[in-house]
Each structure stands twice: as structure tokens, then as C-alpha cells.
Amino acid sequence: MTVTVGIGPVSFDDVVAVARTAGRVQLADDAAAAVEASRRHIEALAADPTPVYGVSTGFGALATRHIPLEMRTALQRSLIRSHAAGSGAEVEAEVVRAMMLLRLSTLASGRTGVRRETAEAYVNLLSAGLTPVVYEYGSLGCSGDLAPLAHVALAIMGEGQVRDRTGALHDTASALAAHGLRPVVFAEKEGLALINGTDGMLGQLVLALNDLDNLFRVADVAAAMSVEGQLGTDRVFADDLQRLRPHPGQAASAANIRALLADSDIVASHRSPDCARVQDAYSLRCSPQVAGAGRDTAAHARTVAERELASVIDNPVVTPDGRVESNGNFHGAPVAYVLDFLAIAVADLAGISERRTDRFLDVARNHGLNAFLAADPGVDSGHMIAQYTQAGIVSELKRLAVPASADSIPSSAMQEDHVSMGWSAARKLRRAVDGLSRVLAIEVLTAARALDMRAPLTPSPATGAVVAAVRSVVEGPGPDRYLAPEIAAVVELVQSGAVVAAAESVVGHLA
């Protein structure tokens, strides 16, 4: 597919497509015209003896120095080289590609003053499938994601390293030449325009929200399987009870669970008036309240992300009447806050999933199933240690829920004396989302085993379809087997959307 970048914002779907499918990119005609128009204002100011920040001055705490015309190419080159100061592990290619597309979107707004050839260089790099090497550490989330974006700009200059579509590492100059591309020599204002943005943290927010859209539905599937497998009641999910507390996410989650449990022989087997079960444990009964709150948190985060996608983040900016004005729109606080908020929701959703899993393994609470769901308890340990794995992940997710945005550390000789730490918030949320997928996968794997052990009673058609999907990659109950590959196989089912697809093949779209 080809994504066209115009003056307006790129969509969520476009960001995900370019990041994850290495789609091609092109610049719309209106964007090209806007870029050229704003560049004319910069070129007029470049010859003005009055210093203009970012055009004819140094940067940050060095903004008081006026730079002569003949030194301005060196100024832009030095800016990028010095700011490409990242360290640590490489950042994932999909994050770098999302970041590149979002920076291109701001360049295409016509408010940054870059030349058309500079904007086109981002188009060319993305379309060629060349991804600059960016490192884990380097952004404080204020004045933009400076170091990560500088590593991308370094590649536009023909320096540093890139990876191709296969993941092979190349020096940038050779890779550009192999694709018929030429390095860009930056002119006034351009280096600054390429690094002053929230694109790294925003790209990771968009990708996380895309993943969570799947995982919230997986959480409902897992909860339904656990309620069923633990002989819980479905009455608590009734629509009239849920409407007493009209949170939209809760309503959606409860509706999903009702649909998933419909026509379950297991649920029907203990629905009679003489059933001694009065109410289930919170981890079963309150599933919609927790998963629903997570959905509502994500809805708020999505609103913030949509506003940010529609924003022009640069400093200074070129106004429509040709002024070049400094501003503080590069501060990452709006994005950083929701990244941290989502990390709280992710940790709690994983926590309730782990508690449901644990109930399956305890003979005092699992209503007649074998201890640890073992084939021969004592000889076999069943899913005992799978729950340990869940618990270890959940414990880490609680640590990752500690907000990064509550921190700040001054930089640039106290010129940049308050920062957002939004990049750090994004990095820990990304790790947390991966952890949540693994916790939910272990619950699905454990619940599927329990449902098989309830035979001859049969699960609902929807949960039965999920059990069948699990059984396509993992054998049913029996003596202990090497468990790590089985967990990995179900993690893949969860992350790929196959668990949700299996359930939706029976009940239709889950909210």
C-alpha cells in the first residue's frame, strides 16, 4: 500500500501500516506546495542581519550567538551530529518508521520551513525500506525526542547506519547509493526542524493503542473462559446490572462476556435454583469493571493521540503570514501523561488475569479440578510454574506502572529546565503491553486445559472455538511436557489476533 502525506494529519491506520508493513509513502501536491511556500519565508529571513532563532543563531543555551551565512551549513550538520548521541539497545524498526512518518507529517504541514527535497528524503527512505539505527536512550521528551530524531536525520545526511527490509545492517552512504538516493546537505533551519518533535513517543502511543484494541478483547475472551472453567455464574454480567454503572468500556466488556458464554453446557450445568454458589470471587465477577476501565483509559489516550496527530510540533514555527516564532509545543506532557495512564491500566488488567489463573490451580478453589491441572498431581506439576511466569511478569508490570512523567531533570545549562520524560513513558508502556499479552496467553492456555478437563460437559460455541485454536498449536491435557514452547505458541495466537478471530467466528464482532 502507499500512504499519501498531505497538509492534514496522518491517520492511526496509516501510522500502523507504514510502521509494520513497510508500506510506501508519497508527498501530496498540496503539501509540496505548502513546504515550498514556507521555505521562501526562511530564505528571506536568512539574509536578514537581525538574528532569528534556528535560522541564524545557535541552539538551546547557545541561542545568543549569531551565525554568519557562510557557517550555516556547518551549523546544521553539527547540530545533527552532536544530537545523534543515543546509547543502549537498538529501538525496534516499527517504532523508528512510525517516528519518521510522523516527522514527515509535520514537515508536510508547511510550518517548519524545510525545503521540499528534505521532506522528500523522508519519503524516499521510508519507501526504500531503509530504517535508521536509533538507540534506546537519548530523549528527555522535551525539545522533542531529540536524540532519536537526530539519528534519523543523520541518515538523511548519509551518515550513521541503517537496516534494510531484511534487517541487514549497512552504512548509510552505501545503502543510499544502492537505492539511487543522495544525501541531503541541510540549509538554514532544517536541522532543527528534523529533531524538534514528539514523534517518537507519539508513534509508540499509536502502536500501543493498536495492540491494546486486540488485547482488551483477548482479556474478555480469557475472562469468559475462566468464569466458565471455574463454574462461575454469568448472571452478574446481565445488561440491566451493568447499566446501573454506565461506563461505556464496562458495558462493552460485559456484552462481550455474555456473548462468549452463550449456550455453554458448563454454565447451564450449575444454573439451577439449588446451586450453592452465591457469588464469585472479584477476579471473576469484576472482570468487566477492570477491562472496561482499561478501555475507557485507552479511549482518552486515543483522543490525546488524535489531537497530537493533528498538531504541528516544531520550534520555531513559520506562521502563515511569514513570521518565525518560538513556542513550547514540543513539550511532551500531554502524550507522556496518557502513556503513563495506560501503563497503570495494563498492569491492573494483567493482575486480574493472573488471579483468575491462580484459582484454576488451587484445589480449594477450582471446584473439582486436579491440583495445578496436573494429569497425575505429585508426579506431574501441571501449570504450577506457568503461573509463576505470570506472577513474575505482573510484578514487573507494577514497577512499569510507576509514572515517568512525574519526573523531570534539567538540561542544556538550565535552558531546558523542565522536561516530560515522555519517551521513557513510551518505552515502558511498550514493554508492559508485551507483558500483558503473555499474561493473557497463559490464562487462555490454562483455561483451555480446564475446559477440556470438564468433559463430558462442553464449553460454549465461542470459547470452544478458542480452545480449538489453542489445540491447533498445543496438545490437550496429559502428562507434563516442555511448557515454554506451548506458552510461546499461545502468545503468538494472542498477539496475532487469532484468539479474538476464533471467538468472533462464532459470535461476530467483539466490542
UniProtKB/TrEMBL annotation:
Q: Which PROSITE patterns match?
A: PAL_HISTIDASE
The listed locations are: Cytoplasm
Which Pfam families does the protein's record reference? Answer: Lyase_aromatic
Give the enzyme's EC designation.
4.3.1.3
InterPro entries, A to Z? Aromatic_Lyase, Fumarase/histidase_N, HutH, L-Aspartase-like, Phe/His_NH3-lyase_AS
Question: One GO molecular-function annotation for this sequence?
Answer: histidine ammonia-lyase activity
Q: Which reaction does it catalyse?
A: L-histidine = trans-urocanate + NH4(+)
Q: Mainly localized where?
A: cytoplasm
What pathway does the annotation place this protein in? Amino-acid degradation; L-histidine degradation into L-glutamate; N-formimidoyl-L-glutamate from L-histidine: step 1/3
Which keywords does UniProt give here? Answer: Histidine metabolism, Lyase
PANTHER family this protein is in?
Answer: HISTIDINE AMMONIA-LYASE
Family that this chain belongs to:
Belongs to the PAL/histidase family.
The protein's name is Histidine ammonia-lyase
- Tell me the organism: Mycolicibacterium arenosum
Upper lineage ranks?
A: Bacteria, Bacillati, Actinomycetota, Actinomycetes, Mycobacteriales
Instruction: Give the gene name.
Output: hutH
